Design the sequence.
């Protein structure tokens, strides 16, 4: 395992996307989707009511970049230069070489395969650069479109975990997915 876990969160690229570190200049774009209740519906965070909430999210991430604790990338559409979402590794366990991936995309861009493209690139980074062995993700039961992303990137369904998440004043059952390094190599 390299000393620097996220290797300084380097810029990553795919056919249509640039994945790059967030900056405070991204607050307007993050607020634009963070304030959409359809986008935040199954996220653990509350719908943003003011741009300050976007700024404080970015500040938390900037602080983590300093300590190399943040695998959080802004998703920028190459064709427009606009930041339209983010993908990240909010939790990791170096002893067991495992981590969790999470993501969010502005509603206007749903249904174009953008998130599977972004998540695949981060998985490649996690396996090939970070040396991780297992990446997992979960979604609350009704959020099947997130499950579709997990399936499209080659994650396997492992089961339902009851009341794993407490958010928005209730417990949520989730569908757990994961992909192993060996699955990734077979693809
Ligand atoms: C989940 C999410 C990231 C999917 O990203 P995406 O780039 O749209 O992914 P895809 O294009 O592969 O579409 C995935 C599924 O979304 C559904 N979908 C597609 N277009 C849609 C639209 N306009 N409106 C609603 N759902 C749509 C479809 O079921 C699709 O699956 P299919 O390709 O088998 O038909 C995105 O919907 C999102 O940001 N949702 C809110 C945040 C969230 O739930 N994050 C995950 C928390 S676990």
Sequence:
């Amino acid at each position: 395992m390299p000393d620097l876990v996220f290797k300084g969160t380097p810029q990553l690229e795919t056919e249509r996307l640039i994945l790059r570190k967030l900056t405070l200049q991204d607050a307007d774009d993050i607020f634009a989707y963070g304030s959409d209740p359809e986008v935040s519906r199954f996220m653990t965070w509350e719908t943003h009511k003011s741009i300050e909430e976007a700024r404080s999210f970015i500040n938390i991430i900037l602080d983590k970049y300093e300590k190399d604790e943040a695998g959080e990338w802004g998703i920028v559409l190459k064709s427009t230069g606009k930041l339209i979402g983010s993908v990240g590794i909010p939790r990791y366990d170096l002893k067991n070489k495992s981590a969790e991936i999470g993501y969010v995309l502005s509603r206007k861009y749903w249904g174009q395969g953008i998130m599977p493209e972004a998540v695949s690139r981060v998985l490649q980074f996690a396996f090939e650069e970070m040396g991780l062995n297992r990446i997992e993700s979960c979604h609350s039961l009704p959020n099947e479109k997130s499950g579709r992303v997990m399936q499209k990137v080659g994650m396997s369904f492992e089961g339902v975990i009851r009341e794993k998440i407490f958010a928005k004043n209730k417990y949520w059952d989730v569908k757990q997915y994961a992909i192993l390094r060996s699955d990734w190599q077979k693809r």
